Amino acid sequence: MAREVNAAGIALIKSFEGLRTEAYRDQRGIWTLGYGHTRGVAEGDTCTDEQATQWLAEDLALAAAGVDRATVGCSTSDNQFAAMVSLAYNVGVYNFITSSVLAMHRASQYAQAGDAFLMWDKTHIGGKLQPDAGLLRRRQAERTLYLTDDGESNE
Q1: Is the Cβ–Cβ distance between 26 and 135 less than 8 Å?
Q2: How far apart are CA 116 and CA 110, in angstroms?
Q3: Catalytic residue selected from 17, 22, 152, 155
């Protein structure tokens, strides 16, 4: 059975993606709708809150499947899994699979894996890779979730 993202992870993703019911171009110029949904989105598209939630569930299932495959055979807490899915959802599963976050996690170097989230704070703007304050805040939140024991409060 496929592993699912916990409530803390979903809340983190929703808070950083934000709900947009009218299609917009993201920083990279990609048409986006709902909670960061991009597949098949075009100018003028709209969605309901319910459709956005459904797309998020579908999109997260794809990211979760990639993270689940990449972490087979290594101990991964629910919060670690959720944080890594958030990263994979945002940067793409391929980028996650080649990341230092995953390499350090698979080596059971959890503090270093947590710190490696912070390396993903840049985006392409105008063809140049530039630091982004919003991405840094997201990476800090993912790092915090990743390093939080499942039994602790995630608030």
Answers
A1: no
A2: 10
A3: 17
Tokens of 94: 């391929």
* Per-residue DSSP letter, 37: B
Closest CA to 57 of 14, 117, 8: 14
- Is 50 a known active-site residue? no
Is the full-model pTM beyond 0.90? yes
**CA distance linking residue 59 with residue 52, whole number of Å:** 10
Q: How many domains does the chain have?
A: 1
Q: Has residue 37 been placed in a domain?
A: no
Domain with 59, as residue range(s), is: 7-16+50-147
Please write the tens of the pLDDT for every residue from 14-56: 999 999 999 999 877 899 999 999 999 999 999 999 999 999 9
* Single-letter amino acid code for the residue at 65: A
Does residue 65 lie in a domain region?
A: yes
Residue 2 within any structural domain of the chain: no
